[in-house]
Write a structure and sequence with these properties.
The chain has 182 residues and is α/β, with parallel strands linked by helices. The protein has helices spanning 14-29, 42-53, 83-93, 104-118, 136-147, 155-158, 165-181, and strands at 2-6, 33-36, 57-63, 76-80, 96-99, 126-129, 160-162. Helix 1 (14-29) runs parallel beside helix 2 (42-53).
């Protein structure tokens, strides 16, 4: 599978870097391809380093104004004209989207794909890697949206929250098993 990961290009401490590093290693060990923002800085570099060290493949989708920080030597690197095109290409290449801790760009990418799911324009699974409870507040907001009738589809179909990197793959395995049984 192509697993698209939305995450920060900021350098963060080990409580965020370690789970991203471990996730990248598992992603490669399971034979999946990393699709990500293509930057060679911050958590984006951490995940790319771990995928490369584990012998995995990578597809980067960057944007022109960040082309000076793209990661060299990946299997495929696409540089888009703007952020809208970048988000579209990331979505097109993704079989699954995993959202690791990040800032405004990560939040923008996440709400964009979730809005498309709300309108049945994509069925790609979206999984929030809730490292250190980073997305607890967002989960609470989503629950409130569901309770008050703002979500047209059940929250459980919209997004899944995983507390660890292993939980991400366990969820994907359970989805595959359910699909095979159907």
């Amino acid at each position: 599978m192509n697993i698209c990961v939305f995450l920060s290009a900021t350098n963060l401490d080990e409580r965020y870097a370690r789970p991203v590093r471990d996730f990248g290693t598992l992603l490669a060990e399971y034979g999946h391809t990393l699709v990500w923002g293509g930057s060679n800085v911050g958590l984006m570099k951490v995940i790319a380093d771990s995928v490369a060290e584990a012998g995995g493949s990578m597809i980067g989708v960057s944007v022109e104004f960040l082309s000076h920080i793209v990661r060299p030597g990946v299997d495929e690197m696409i540089v888009t004209a703007d952020l809208a095109e970048r988000k579209e290409l990331l979505r097109e290449k993704a079989d699954v989207v995993v959202v690791a801790p990040g800032g405004m760009g990560t939040l923008d990418e996440t709400t964009d794909i979730l809005e498309l799911k709300n309108h049945y324009k994509t069925g790609v699974p979206v999984i929030m890697l809730n490292t250190e409870g980073f997305y607890n507040g967002l989960r609470e907001q989503f629950q409130r949206m569901e309770q008050d009738g703002f979500l047209p589809i059940p929250l459980a179909e919209l997004v899944h929250f995983a507390d660890t990197e292993q939980d991400v793959f366990a969820y994907l395995d359970s989805r595959a098993e359910a699909a095979a049984a159907a």
